[in-house]
Design goal:
By secondary structure, this protein is an alpha/beta fold. Helix content is about 30%, strand content about 25%. The relative contact order is 0.15.
């Protein structure tokens, strides 16, 4: 699909999409919960749908109702020997440890860029947990045979926190006793906070956390859980970040459905909006953002690397050179996002320099009409669309359907706010 975004002035109210990070964790917890789970305001992105498919392959039964899902589970009891995680990095890294709780031999795989993303940590850690594993030289597909036996292990947290999330779910549901997960150089700590929050909400065994370096499970305990768990999926700060930036560079936008007390890492977009000089207020469950005298800012995105695309869209309209730290975290995303951002925004007339872990965005000189490609990356497609709102002519985005991975309603939400966007099927 091709999206043609014309210069536009936005105005109005919009309800943000649901968090796929929260939704996928809720699906994992619902699978592990023996009983019934009601998930309210579920997400509908490709990653969300993939998570729903995964837990059904692993034994859960899902009934869809208006506004909520009803999930029944007796634990991990696979009904299929192949589990497909779509293109979700969280999905494959979280569900593989969970799937290994079964003694059945399973093959886990995915699609697109996920097939080339590193999964070597499974080869290194699983044998220490009694799991037989065979991977494709550290990549998908992966064949495993459990059951997982919780043991004290040490993992590298520098690449991603997603594998740790899967281990925490699996250890908790296995009623791990007197074992510790030691973590070196953990990145994206807020996502682990989200994991622990979901574990607590589902009444599962909670580890003792020491400085995010050790996660210790005490003596075995009698797990008593409510037969029916009710859980409401939060608004997505990752997707909403593009709406905040759209308001900051175009006109006043009101964003509803966000939790101001959320532990989501990408809530830090608020800090960037304030730092650049845009106007931001919050009242009665609604954030209102509008343009100001936008100036360059400094931002550390090490713990929230998914903010790089919207931050670049924002920085492109800020006078001066914006400095964003954490660029090394962008290599193993749907695309090599640092280079992709440099390419896409370069075509629109914005210079981006990369120096090791720092990205410098030269902004304030305007945005040019151009034809770009999303590089099959949902956040790149959205970043280009938002940046195009104040360009000097239309911007054509190829492979625009990449947004379906996380925010399938994005273009329609933008149109409802006044954006002039034409969608063409190739």
């Amino acid at each position: 699909m091709k999206a043609i975004v014309h210069p536009s002035v936005l105005h109005g109210n919009i309800r943000a999409p649901r968090s796929k990070s929260d939704m996928q964790r809720a699906c994992a917890a619902a699978l592990l919960h023996v009983g019934k789970t009601l998930i309210y305001t579920p997400g509908n992105s490709n990653d969300d749908l993939a998570a729903m498919d995964v837990i059904q392959k692993l034994g859960a039964v899902i009934v869809e109702h208006t506004g909520h899902l009803e999930i029944s589970s007796a634990g991990v009891m696979p009904v299929n020997d192949t589990v497909f995680c779509g293109e979700s990095g969280l999905g494959i890294r979280m569900f593989t440890p969970i799937a290994s709780m079964s003694s059945q031999q399973l093959t886990l795989t995915g699609s697109g860029s996920l097939l080339n993303r590193p999964m070597h940590f499974f080869d290194e850690i699983f044998p220490k947990l009694g799991i037989d594993i065979m991977s494709n030289d550290g990549k998908l597909p992966i064949k495993i045979k459990g059951p997982l036996v919780p043991s004290t292990i040490e993992v590298d947290g520098s690449l991603s926190s997603q594998f740790l999330t899967g281990l925490l779910f699996a250890f908790s549901a296995s009623n791990a006793s007197d074992v510790t997960i030691k973590v070196n150089d953990l990145k994206s700590r807020p996502y682990i906070d989200m994991t622990l929050q979901v574990i607590k909400a589902f009444g599962m065994k909670i580890p003792i956390v020491d400085s995010y370096e050790t996660f210790s499970f005490g003596p075995a305990s009698t797990i008593s859980s409510t037969d029916t768990i009710q859980y409401t999926v939060e608004g997505d700060w990752s997707g909403a970040s593009f709406l905040f930036v759209a308001g900051a560079i175009s006109a006043e936008v009101a964003i509803e459905g966000m939790n101001p007390d959320s532990v989501q890492a990408d809530k830090q977009i608020l800090k960037a909006i304030k730092s650049c000089g845009a106007h931001l207020s919050y009242n009665d469950g609604r954030y209102v953002v509008s343009p100001g005298e936008l100036v360059a800012f400094e931002f550390d995105a090490t713990e929230c690397p998914d903010l790089f695309p919207p931050l670049v869209s924002l920085a492109a309209y800020c006078k001066g050179v914006t400095k964003i730290k954490g660029a090394k975290r962008l290599t193993h995303k749907e695309s090599d996002r640092a280079l992709t951002l440099q390419d896409v925004f370069g075509k629109m007339g914005v210079k981006i320099d990369l120096d090791e872990d720092i990205m410098y965005v030269h902004g304030g000189s305007g945005m040019n009409t151009a034809e770009v490609h999303s590089h099959h990356d949902h956040r790149i497609a959205m970043a280009a669309a938002v940046a195009a709102l104040c360009a000097n002519g239309p911007v054509i985005i190829n492979d625009a359907e990449a947004i379906n991975k996380s925010y399938p309603d994005f273009y329609h939400h933008m149109i409802s706010l006044g954006a002039k966007i034409t969608l063409e099927t190739n």
